[in-house]
What does this fold into?
Amino acid sequence: MQLASLQELFTNELKDLYDAEKQILKELPKMVDAASSPRLQKGFAQHLEQTRKHVERLDQIFQNRQVSGGRKKCKGIEGILEEGGELLKQDVDSDVLDAGLIAAAQKVEHYEIAGYGSVRTYAELLGDDKTAALLDQTLQEEKATDAKLSELARNEVNLEAADADAVDDDAAVARTRSPRRSARSAKK
It folds into this structure.
């Protein structure tokens, strides 16, 4: 497919984002279920509802622009989601899993921030202020979600994952010391 104009690139990128949002809608419920932190579960559930609104906005944009809403396979999000899905298949401490889920979610958010920032700018350049405003609304929501994830990681989830590591380290030290103590006790 040859893209001969900014208008065509804009439509192509909108279709890519539409597919990305649809893929995210399928994966977010898995993340809600996998998270152990109540705040993280709530955040993922809220973002699921927000993502539904993002799809509705894109549908509205396609309708306003009289463009068929079809999807263009978003390989970028597909890869990011696949990578995040691998984490769910591993045997991981729940606190560490929560930290990994946040990292995976932020990769998704950063992809969306880049995508929505670009298409918003294209809409502005094409003089479509109504579409630019709708895209900016989604862009701001994606940025806010990313900021909330960063705050939750920094102030709660990553600290709990680090504590899990400290507990594991203490247990490992205790296991290595136990045989020595037993040996010393046996000699007495």
About this structure: The first helix runs from residue 6 to 34. Helices lie at 6-34, 38-64, 75-88, 94-125, 129-187.
